[in-house]
Amino acid sequence: MRDTFINAIDIVQILSAILVFLLGLGLLIVIVMYVVDVNQTSHAIRRNFPVIGRFRYLFEKLGEYFRQYFFAQDREEMPFNRAQRSWIYRAAKGIDNTVAFGSTKDLRPVGTMIFVNCPYPVLESEVVPTSTLEIGPYCRQPYRTDSIFNVSAMSYGAISKPAVLALSKGSARAGNWMNTGEGGLSPYHLEGGADIVFQVGTAKYGVRNPDGTLNDEMLAEVTAHEQVKMIELKLSQGAKPGKGGILPGEKVTEEIASIRGIAAGADSISPNRHPEIDSAEELLDMIARIRDVSGKPVGFKTVIGAYGWLDELFELIHERGLESAPDFITVDSGDGGTGAAPMSLIDNVGLPIRESLPLVVDRLNHHGLRDRIRVIASGKLVTPAEAALALCAGADFINSARGFMFSLGCIQALQCNLNTCPTGITTHDKRLQRGLVVSDKAERVYQYAKNMRKEISVIAHSCGVKEPRGLKRFHVRIVQQDGRSVPFDELFPDVQPASGVQS
Ligand SMILES: Cc1cc2nc3c(=O)[nH]c(=O)nc-3n(C[C@H](O)[C@H](O)[C@H](O)COP(=O)(O)O)c2cc1C
Ligand code: SF4
To answer: Atom 1 of ligand 2 has which residue's CA nearest to it?
Structure first.
């Protein structure tokens, strides 16, 4: 009896020892994982949320198996579905982006685009580089570039210092431009060495007088930087037409306030329109003034809703002379992104790019201004097919904001306005910014831009044209209600210059 009792005690002691050992081992593994996660540089989530951040990758992996039964399908989520995000993540990592077995894309829904392949695609040996275009032929310093895919406006303020740095370094390497957004020009935009498009927003941040009007001396100083190649006057932005920028006070640090020329800690709210631009005349006056001061190409950014004003503007350009024209128009989609905007505007106002882009190109053609005014398109053009469609519709260049955010590691947590971005992109919380390692993410920005260009070209070659600029509307078809596709140029027939119009 006594022996049995002693044996039982022994077993309990052995089991306890094993338990303590396992707990100790588990703790050791957690500590090792913690140290590895905190010190590794390639995953922002693991760096910011050591150990528990690993579950995201586990669930993401398991999701591939379970999602099809329980949750969203690959192509269901908004604003960007998993198929789009995965493509960008892989492109940004420069890893194999081929898929096996067949497409998971349903080609039947209305609006689906289908590119028209050519029976005799372009041979590798026949491929030519994307042609260079000149922007601003009447300026003292026109800008010439072949970069079809570029970083759209995102202000330093809406995005963090490491995000700006990674974008500028990656862009410099890839050879694309980077738009400052309306928050002014920061040293971090310049540090990477990329070409810069300086945006003048409605509050004229960085180039303003205390009353919010444009200060010509400051504008001259900012635009004198060699890297600043063009100036974009922001009339409106797709996510919030008719509403100015909103940067919550907690994101307005001392440094951001001083770059913008405003008070720190207070909400940074820009007017919903340039107070001095209320007509085609005043728009052209402002463009002329900025071009005079800077000597560089000047264009404007807008989301299209009403469009009669374009005819009025283009007629006025002919009256004043071709040199008075904006050097480019950036057409932003009604479903564009933003740091913060009211849902009523984000959801309901402004035409999507697929409709507005051909419309603007057609109005330019009609007025014989297609060669004078370059067209830049933005709005969910984050994968090669969407970008190629924009080229077919008539865009000369494409801008993307959220595509590049994904390349920086954005997980679509949709908290950009809260200063709590878990990947360090849209937060000024130093602890969270630590996850965004500039050197690593700059490489991803570079890879993403490079792979976008490469695969846009692949689509072009499949359609039988030697370079992306050869893509025309007839190269893509759009699925209709009856399940059949029609050529894009049937939906938006090419427009010729009106008789008597000089281009
Ligand atoms: C975080 C963030 C900040 C932005 N800031 C600006 C800005 O300062 N000025 C502007 O014109 N557009 C701004 N945008 C809009 C983008 O430049 C772009 O027009 C829009 O998001 C559509 O492109 P996308 O679909 O590739 O994101 C911002 C977008 C995001 C996501
Ligand atoms: S991770 Fe979320 S909060 Fe951060 S940039 Fe992406 S959507 Fe915005």
So the answer is: 410
Nearest to 334 by CA among 321, 322, 344, 347: 347
Ligand 2 mean position, distance from CA 105 (Å): 26
- Which residue has a Cα nearest atom 8 of ligand 2? 416
- From the list 300, 275, 285, the residue with the least C-alpha distance to 182 is 300
325-345 pLDDT tens trace: 999 999 999 988 887 778 888
181 Cα nearest atom in ligand 1 = 8
Triad 220, 221, 227: Cα angle to 5°? 100
CA nearest ligand 2 atom 4, residue:
421
Q: What is the pLDDT of residue 340?
A: 75
Give the rounded distance of the alpha carbon of 186 from its chain centre: 19
Pocket residue to mutate for ligand 1, from 177, 237, 416, most atoms within 8 A of Cβ: 237
pLDDT at 502: 61
Phi, psi of 113 (to 5 degrees): -95, 140
Instruction: Please count the other Cβ atoms lying within 10 Å of the Cβ belonging to residue 418.
Output: 14
What DSSP string describes 74-100?
TTT-SSS-HHHHHHHHHHHHT------
For 289-311, the pLDDT digits (tens) are 999 999 999 999 999 999 999 99
Phi first, then psi: what are they for 191, rounded to 5°?
-55, -40
**pLDDT tens for each residue of 2-48:** 667 667 788 889 999 999 999 999 999 999 999 999 999 888 889 99
Q: Which two tokens stand for residue 146?
A: 């072949």
Whose CA is closest to atom 6 on ligand 2?
410
